[in-house]
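Sanity check

After download, print the first record. It should look like this:
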Amino acid sequence: MYKYLSLFLLVLLCKSSLAQQGTPFGNLGGAARGGKTDSIHFEHRDDAKDSVNISFRYLDSIRSLRFDTSLNDFYKYFIVPSSQQFLGNDGAGGYNLIFSPYAKAGWDAGFHAYDAYKYTLENSRFFKTTRPFTQFVFQGFPSKEQVIKILHTQNPKPNLNFGLEFKLINSPGYLSYQNTNHSSLRFFSSYQGKRKRYGAFFSLITNNIRGAENGGIQSDTFLNSKNFEKRFTIPVNMGGSEYSDPGVFNQSFTTGTTQKDFTFFYKHYYDLGKKDSVEINDSTTEYLFYSKLRFQHTFTYSTYNYQFKDLEPDSALYQQWYDTTLHLKDTLIVVDSWKIISNDFSLLQFPDTKNSGQYLLAGARLENIKGTFTSGSKSFYNIILHGEYRNKTKNKLWDILAKGELYMNGLNSGDYNIYSSLSRYLNKRWGNVSLLFNNVNRSPSFIYSTLSSFNFGNSASYNKENFIILKATADNPFISLSAANYFITNYLFFLDYYKTEQYSKVINLLQLSASKKFRLSKRWNWYTEATLQQTDAAAPIKVPLLYTRNRFAYEGLFFKNLNLSTGIEIRYYTPYKAANYSPVMGQFMPQDTSSISNRPDITAFMHFRIKTFTGYLRAENLNTISFYNGFGFTHNNFAAPHYITPGLIIRLGIQWNFVN
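Expected structure tokens:
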């Protein structure tokens, strides 16, 4: 289905690109003027017609942003951040090498290994554009993977915008039973009334995550055997008894994870305040409105479905890993499903009539929650009070934000979130400095509950987790610096493949980060970023002491239109006891028995842009070169114990922007 949808969308894009070009031979000049002539007049292409003024902002943000047009960083186009470590295949479960906890109050199902691939309300963008705009991104390699991303947005009227985003990730993997197939779709729209009293934001989001799980390779010694130079022949722990040669259109699996979610979101408001207008010309009047009081309502309906299935389970493995007895021809299917309806009512007051960036907000939210498990269905609710103060001064120098929410009653009663930040823009030389404080008290994720279908015999009652985060940043043209300190109490984690545990001591984790661009010569630039992390060795959180990424790039503008960046990219992190992975639970679990000590990840790249067309060619994992059993790229790195990353990968990709 997806390949046909991709083809259909590609045809539409091609049609759109042809529409930009107009009639190739212009008008027959005499006919256009009513005269008679056989001469042909060619129209001169006006590049200004392909220009577009486009901006966006995230939900509940007052800051307007523009696209990042930098060419040298591949991860502006890729599907996950550069610090994400996924389990050996695009679209597989993963974790961030730079520690970032899930610190949100309220209900949480507890499944986050695939979060990096999903559309969410938090990463939704609402656009404003002067012309219809389409962005098409494709990357892949025959028989190995395909990634397609499409964005289209337009303003049919100045006060109305709508658009859609589509993302497809399809990768067969490099080992047996490792294929992934994800698709995400997001519709969005924003509207403001002509008199600017009424406004609305709408979003419809769906994610379909499907990833096979093989449990890792059975033994690391297979990596050095000449019999297993083709890595898909290495025996794996889960998936079945027959080896499968992966193919890009093989979307089925016998063992794996399926996560589906759907969100309908609608926020609208009505303002009271001061009217004004500006007469543009005799026939056009621009209406202005300065809000004093806003009535705001937000409705959200969401469904979530988390499933693990194994149609050919190995009874001995399940007995060893999960203490679960399975009989011959048994199948294992574990499902948690949720439906959540949320209604939020808020009042906003604007003290300064002509500064919409300063306001006070007070609101209340009611959540109705229904969960369905193996044992049956159960309904819950939450009543939440929340407030916010924001002041982005009219001179754009200060930005103050303080907000909080308290769960008064219901499933997550007693949860709270307190957040405050202070930013100050100094000048062009010293840039912006900011301070951040965040304190979150949250109930354990539902996967730790005895009601969850994914609870395999854990009966403990756990206390609420508490996170205190202190952070300071300085961002200027010379260097970007940040320091963060995490204080974590009652940290919950998986002790092994299914057992859960709570750490009673306070965990203190310190992070120091820096990034900078060095100009080595007229054409050569060095981009470097590094993060130092330190925590108590006895704590269940394990992180590499140093994570760093460096790009040495030859860059410049050639032949007037060719913008080029080519060079070497190196990613490295110090040896550490990387978390193991539980396939059934979809959770990463700390371990103290083995350390991951990898070679630096080395990539040769060439990125280029010609007007609105961007292309990239990358040779990744050059570090896996080996002469042990003859020449090959078989010195694989590890993402987790018994989970290897691929050998040499050639990535081809394009990004093409169309202005209609």
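If your output differs, re-run the checksum step. Summary of this record's structure: The chain has one domain: 46-659.
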